[in-house]
Amino acid sequence: MFGRRAIRVAAVVAVLGLSASTGAGAAIADKPVVNPGALPSGGNPAPPDATEQPANSPCASTSTGGDGPTVPTAQRSLELDKAWQFSRGAGQLVAVIDTGVMRHPRLPGIIPGGDYVSAGDGTDDCDAHGTFVAGIIAATQIAGQGFSGVAPQAQILSIRQTSSYFQKKGAGRDKGPDAMPEGYGTTHTLAQAVRRAADMGATVINMSEVACQAGAIPDDDLGAAVHYAAVEKNVVVVTAAGNNDKCKGTNPVIDPLDPSADPWTKVDLNVSPARWDDYVLPVGSIDDNGQPSKFTVPGPWVGVAAPGENLTSLDPHWDDPRSKGTAVAKVDQQGKAEPISGTSFASPYVAGVAALVRARYPELSALDVIKRIEATAHAPAEGWNPYVGYGAVDPVAALTAQVPNSLPPKRPSAAKSWQLPVPTTPPAPDHTSRNVALIGTGVIGVLAVLGYLASFPLRRRFGDRGE
Questions:
Q1: Contact 296, 305 (CB under 8 A)
Q2: Within 10 A of 35 (CB to CB), how many other CB atoms are there?
Q3: Per-residue pLDDT tens for 294-333?
Q4: Fewer CB atoms inside 10 Å of the end CB: C or N, the chain?
Q5: What's the pTM?
Q6: CATH of domain 3-400
Q7: Contact 34/224 with Cβ under 8 angstroms?
Q8: 344 is catalytic
Q9: Catalytic: which of 220, 344, 347, 394?
Q10: What 3-state class would DSSP assign to 343?
Q11: CB neighbours (10 Å) of residue 406?
Q12: Longest CA–CA separation in the chain, Å
């Protein structure tokens, strides 16, 4: 339906690799410009092609765990217990555009938003990815469990837009019997899903998906959709920055010879929807020590960062008697556990914070919410850098701090130098008084000695007279 210019998108941690049928092209040096006329029409979701789940592609299994009273490290580092004193996200509808979200007792009131992959309603999740994302955003609190979503009183709107376990019907006929599907979903269906979420009343949208390549990405409709959501529908749109295992290449966006240069002039790898950063909040990943994750893709679009390694979330297979309701990994067909890690899972932490802020400050526009989150982040030494943006998200500060009217541009601060004052040579000390005193003392001492010595002849004469 969309022809050769459709670019597949992927949940950033899913098996699906990303490629473009247009091939690689010239490096991108300019920010994209929105074409409002490219906005996709509204309507009920449906896959643009007949799709299938191959027989050799069973849905993902998970590794249960993360239950019990211990608060996960990522959650503890964000001090959510303090943030919840000000907001829990009540009244917010957070759209998860992903691989679908399974119904779960800790996601009450989930709203089906539709399915662009198959004939479902958005509440099927063959990949586990979308359920992990939704759990990080809005899993409710229960007694005896340390894990909770960032905004436990928010509601989830689920739209299935991609899956690495589905493909266009017949696409695998020329492959071997053991071939894995390449997955399903494009930037065009992503654009439709964004409009769908905005029209259904979402206050926050999370997209843990990327399309990436060197060269131009034909995503004008996606740019128009995020503009429509953010500006016309007042929706905070949050997206992942991308992982370098699927997004091959990187962006050398800091020039050591000119660190304050416009980072857009250094872009070699284009990432969408992150590159539409005037209307979306792209999120990078940090580790438990607050350092950029090795897999996070840098770019001039990155706004903030959040924890993205070895996380805990909801188990989509919670109804399995062996499940504890939460999970710490996805298990592939070879039985290998893949920890819940990636910018896919850093993004929902920030989407959850956006829900907290929207609930506390309902008068703020979507773009002002983004500015507040960026302005209150823990900034790196440079003020901004292409790995963590304006820094690690701080939910408490985002809910309580006063923010400036504007932010500095997304580029590292120029190195500063100061002319240190040259110390003046102190004047030679005036020792006149000391010298006079010493000389006087010396003269008196000499006179005393001379007087003493002069007394010997006198003593001798006086002594002789006495004899």
A1: yes
A2: 12
A3: 999 999 999 999 999 999 999 999 999 999 999 999 998 7
A4: C
A5: 0.84
A6: 3.40.50.200
A7: yes
A8: yes
A9: 344
A10: helix
A11: 8
A12: 149
